[in-house]
Description:
The chain is α/β, with parallel strands linked by helices. It is 49% helix and 14% strand. The mean pLDDT is 92.
Amino acid sequence: MSINTNWYIITGAPGSGKTALIKHLASLGYTIIPEAARNLIDVEIKKGKTIKEIRSDEGEFQKKVFRIKVKTENKISPQHITFIDGGAIPSSIAYYQISGLDPAPVIEETKKRKYKGVFFLEQLPFKKDYARVENKKTANDLNQLLYKTYLDLGYDAIRIPPTSIKERVRFILKKIKSDSES
């Protein structure tokens, strides 16, 4: 049995602007859940590890991220409007696949909840940062795989073009408002 939630996923490939958009939503007073992978990386860096050490075994890294996502989502009220930064549980399906892992446990977990909506951010010009190990090709592959993952799960992943953060947020909030009125 799955629970219906008022959670919106902000997803897209690495470097598509998810975190900047989520931070803007937070500044407007919305409840957000930061990206699990980036949080894990930040915690490990504070312990003195390098990104190379943290992600030396990508499969194990993805399993840790998945466990964090499950723990986090199990604590969120399903009734409260919440925006999840790319790190919603279904996104782990794509990351498991690209890491060569069997996504079956992730697929099973996704059946436990129904997200209110999925906003898929189109890619921006790719830039590496301290937490990103993906190259441009992997980011492109993830972009396609993430979108397909949400479609395969039955979601209408609404594509958001690569415009300004404010325009993207305006589009999302307008869509949410129109959905709640219908």
